[in-house]
Amino acid sequence: MRLKIAKESLLNVLSHVVGAVERRHTLNILSNVKIQVTAQALTITGSDLEVELVASTTLGEGACLQAGETTVPARKLMDICKSLPTAALIDLQITEDQRCILKSGNSRFVLGTLPAEDYPLLTTDSSQGTQVQVTQRELKRLFEKTAFAMAVQDVRFYLTGTLLEIDQHQLRAVTTDGHRLALCETAANSTAAQLVQAIVPRKAVGELQRLLSIEDEQLTLLIGRELLNVNISIASKDKEQGGTSVRFTTKLIDGKFPDYRRVIPRGGDKHVLIAHDVFKQSLQRVAILSNEKLRGVFLNFNQDSLQLRANNPEQDEAIEDLAIQYANAPLEMSFNAQYLLEVLNVLDGDDVAMSMTEANQSVLVQDPAHTDQTYVVMPMRV
After folding, report:
1. Neighbours of 314 (CB within 10 A)
2. For residues 238 and 7, what is the distance between their CA atoms, to the nearest angstrom?
3. Which residues, in sequence order, are CB contacts of 293 under 8 Å at separation 6+?
4. pLDDT given for residue 314 in this prediction
């Protein structure tokens, strides 16, 4: 195998797949990427047996000097490419003794390889599963508006991912860690005859957010019993370079997501409307003097006013008063400031609507202008 290619072109393809590669893996070959070169295209594959990324780009005439395939250490190749000058031309060659020699200018690097045929791949059956059509922009938005509420480390492993729920005309993303819940939905076309649910792991959600753009290009998600697959076209920033196509595959979490509909409070009899930016900035200021571990902030609702209060074991205290729209009985609640702030960070409108019942019951938080987003935050027990 031998390839001559511009540094930026190789780095562009490599950067799309290297996120799937673990630095340390029990299988040595999974620290490598698989490189395939034909007369027409360069294809690089990265995998950790949970998430697999396959990126391809077309090659110019004369770039492929000898077709072939191999696997090389992912991070080392990435670091070498990054260290080369901007306009560098790379000569990548696999010798007869299966060593990878990379030359560029006066630099020469020799890397160990492992056989390409030993590289494990996730196989998908394109005829099996539910197909969902949605734009890149909307899929990216679903993840961005909900990813923060995924559990990080939890024995309830099914909470460490994002639930995708599909019916014929809607795609819904739901996350919860037991303390808060995030839901966002969008219109989508699917082949689902009945409600379909799939839990996408945290790492896969992160990689998808990185790959997706805000283009209105249609994507087709294929959701099977064990795998989710999608092909994404990524336009090149350099008009002289061809675009890159990425095939994304992830294993789904095998578990049953809790019935989130039972968690969303209905019929709250106390309603608040607060200016978004004012509320967010006040909360950030008051939280400075909250208990560092608990991050608790008291919200005291009265007729058209809200008092935010925080204190800590060092006897520090912060108090701030806001004008709001509230016409119900006085109510005091305590929240983890970080949980509220993370919700406010993903709301885009001018106002925030909160619906409540009692001091120890969960609160419904929404943007009145965007009813396709729903958030639930549990108060702290005082």
Report:
1. 9
2. 13
3. none
4. 92
Instruction: Give, as one character, the DSSP assignment of residue 325.
Output: B
Q: What is the dihedral of CA 248, 249, 252, 257, to 10 degrees?
A: 20
* Bridge partners (DSSP) listed for residue 180: 377
Q: What DSSP assignment string belongs to 120-184? A: ------TTSSEEEEEEHHHHHHHHHHHGGGS-SS-SSGGGSEEEEEE-SSEEEEEEE-SSEEEEE
**Alpha carbons 295 and 380: distance in angstroms, whole number:** 10
In angstroms, the CA 286 to CA 332 distance is: 16
Encoded tokens for 108: 């020469």
Q: Which residues contact 75 (CB under 8 A, 6 or more apart)?
A: 18, 21, 23, 31
**Residue type present at position 286:** V
Whether the model pTM is above 0.90: yes
* Number of Cβ atoms within 10 Å of the Cβ of 371: 10
- Spans of the chain below 70 pLDDT: 125-127, 236-242, 382
Placement of tokens 């490598």 in the chain? 32
